[in-house]
Amino acid sequence: MVVSDDEYAPDASDDDIDAHRVSKRGKSSGNGVGNDGITDGFNEVRRTWEDVEEGEDGTITKTIDSLLQQGKRKRTLKDTTPLQRGIIRHLIVIMDLSAAMTEKDLRPTRYLLTIRYCEEFVIEFFEQNPISQLGILGMQDGLAVRVSDMSGNPSDHISNLQALRKEEPKGQPSLQNALDMARATLFHAPSHGTREILLLFGSLLSSDPGDIHTTITSLVASHINTTVIGLSAQVAICLTLVKRTNPHSNPQKHYNVALDEVNYRELIMCLATPPEAHTQQATSVEDSNASSLLMMGFPSRVTDPKPSLCACHSRPTSGGYLCSRCSSKVCSLPTTCPACSLTLILSTHLARSYHHLFPLQNWKTVSWSRASSDTHWHKTLCFGCQTPFPTHPTTTTATTTSKHLPIAKLPTKPPLSDARNAESASTDPSTAFLHNTSTRAATKKREDDQTVSESGRYACGSCGEFFCVDCDVFCHEIVHNCPGCLSRGG
Question: What is the pLDDT averaged over residues 309-335?
Answer without folding.
Answer: 90
